[in-house]
Design goal:
Distance between the termini: 51 Å
Largest sheet: 6 strands, mixed
Number of domains: 2
Number of helices: 9
CATH class of the largest domain: Alpha Beta
Number of strands: 11
CATH superfamily of the largest domain: von Willebrand factor, type A domain
CATH topology of the largest domain: Rossmann fold
Shape: elongated
Low-confidence stretches: none
Structural class: alpha/beta
Order of helices and strands: EHHEEHEEHHEHEEEHEHEH
Radius of gyration: 38 Å
Strand content: 25-35%
Mean pLDDT: 84
Helix content: 25-40%
Length: 329
């Protein structure tokens, strides 16, 4: 609630002065009656005597209500119309066993999922989808505006559901095929992997050329550190993985070529902080065009205060000329 003419509220500052002056006048007109014993006054006061003191309080309330009504209280209603030119974004995530390597805490895949989920929550107007790949590729979630469903798919990603291997070309081609069906003018792929392409029927560079032909930009993100890393060696019968220290290889040149061909950009994430900064940079580069129009509406409330004023004045008149009437002789 706001006031159209708030300066009238300054009159309320005079109210304490009026109350003080009124009490002085009452005391000056007060008649002192001396009696020999207080017991002589017992039983004289009735509810009428106490109730008469409230008549002046009603008047103070009336003054306050009139001043508030003069200030014109209003209830503000805001309507916002949003026109957004969205971007189609396909996230392509590597779920090969090497993504369980422990150079990230607790592992690469867990950190990648957390950062990707946070990125999704910051794109309220875009259509996003998810493709996962290992030895093959699979569409986990097509393009959608439902953030909660997409985040649920991301959070439930696991290693071992696809054949072993790293089919970067298959994952990229699957994402590009979905983006070709989209209606947005801007289309991008966020490709996250930690290894070399060693599987799949389609090469990564061929998929990158197809992405460029369809106007899809590919941002490639290489996740992982150099050197010896605790990494899975094989999968046990119960589904768990055995780990050992291994020398990890990383084909940065391939990811750079994919990004270069499709007019995208290559990033290297050696820590969770790096990965978060990469997503922030991509977010700044790929801004959704949003036009907002605000409509301001107001509803006048002063008549409610005037109605209350009338009710209090009527109550005072009924009390003053009714049961609280004073008869002077």
């Amino acid at each position: 609630m706001s006031f159209a003419q708030p300066l009238w509220l300054l009159l309320l500052l005079l109210l304490p002065l009026l109350i003080y002056q009124y009490r002085r006048e009452v005391k000056r007109r007060h008649v002192t009656l001396q009696v020999s014993r207080l017991t002589a006054m017992k039983g004289i006061k009735t509810w009428v005597v106490y109730a008469r003191n409230w008549i002046q309080i009603i008047r103070w309330i009336v003054i306050v209500l009139i001043v508030i009504a003069m200030a014109r209280p209003q209830l503000l209603w805001h309507e916002e119309e949003i026109v957004a030119e969205s971007i189609d974004i396909m996230m392509v995530m590597d779920v090969s066993p090497s993504m369980l390597s422990k150079d990230f805490i607790p592992d690469r895949l867990t950190v990648a999922k957390e950062v990707a989920s946070s990125f999704v929550s910051r794109r309220p107007y875009d259509q996003l989808g998810l493709v996962v790949f290992s030895g093959g590729a699979f569409t986990q979630c097509p393009l959608t505006n439902d953030r909660r469903i997409l985040q649920a798919f991301i959070n439930n990603l696991q290693v071992g559901r696809l054949p072993d291997g790293t089919a970067i070309g298959m994952g990229l081609a699957t994402a590009v095929r979905h983006l070709d069906k989209g209606k947005s003018k801007s289309k991008i792929v966020l490709l996250i992997t930690d290894g070399e392409n060693n599987a799949g029927d389609l090469g990564p560079l061929t998929a990158a050329v197809a992405a460029k032909a369809l106007g899809v930009r590919v941002y490639t993100i290489g996740i992982g550190t150099d050197g010896l890393v605790q990494s899975p060696t094989h999968q046990n019968n119960n589904g768990s993985f055995s780990f050992a220290t291994r020398q990890m290889t990383f084909d940065t040149q391939l990811l750079e070529k994919i990004a270069s061909i499709s007019n995208g950009k290559f990033y290297r994430a050696r820590s969770a902080v790096d990965l978060e900064e990469i997503y922030n940079e991509v977010e700044s580069l790929e801004k959704t065009k949003v036009v907002k129009t605000s409509v301001r509406r107001t509803s006048e409330l002063f008549f409610w205060f005037l109605n209350a004023t009338f009710c209090f004045l009527l109550l005072e008149m009924l009390l003053r000329w009714g049961p609280l009437r004073v008869i002077t002789v």
